[in-house]
Amino acid sequence: MSLIKIIMIKKYNISWNTPKNISYFISINESGFSRDKFKYANFSNSVGDKYHAVHKNIEELKNNNNINNISFMNQTHSNKIKKIIYYKNYNNSDAIYTYNPLIACAVMTADCIPILVTNLSGSLIGCLHVGWRGLKNNIIQKFFSSIQEDNYNFKVLIGPCISKRRYEVDDIVFREFSDYKKFFSMNKDGKYNMDLRSIAHDILSQLGITDVTISPVCTYDDKRFYSYRKNKITGRFVSLIWFKK
Fold this sequence. Notes:
- 18% of the residues lie in helices and 27% in strands.
- By secondary structure, the chain is α/β, with parallel strands linked by helices.
């Protein structure tokens, strides 16, 4: 009698046309080892979840996808970019990239934008954690300027994030984005709804990056994903990219 392996970490299915040697994975919350407010597939050790549950989620992710090393970041809404030459985990940054085929790059989110990046030749992988502070501090522009490659060579995936309808900000944030006013709408409470996803896409377009795949999912509305705006105590889902062996 054969045993059927149960996959404990399930994938959000989105079609992204990457080079043949590149794989990617975005987790959803239908299964995993976290419980209570963090159920089921939380990948962050900094939100109050039990360490052993997070560790088991990460190990399951690695085993299911035949990955040895995942480089996670200590994300602080900065615009710090790190090139990973040798495997290092939990560096202080909000964007990383590597040419090392033995390293996977991961970003954790719960409303902010997870962005995955590769190039036409499949020689580079990277990821970014992008919220309004990152957008304001030009993390996307800084990321691509730090890589010595023509921008038209890049392939980008904008992953699930909070939608404009659900993302309310105050006048202080609105005034920080004078060049992007068309992506804001004043609501009945006198505040603004901000379209993070469209601003990110517009920045990529300005950089000459046109090969962009965009998830339409709203993390606030879709129960498969964590949302900090909806539940302050919550987990983080992972967006991951790596070189196939």
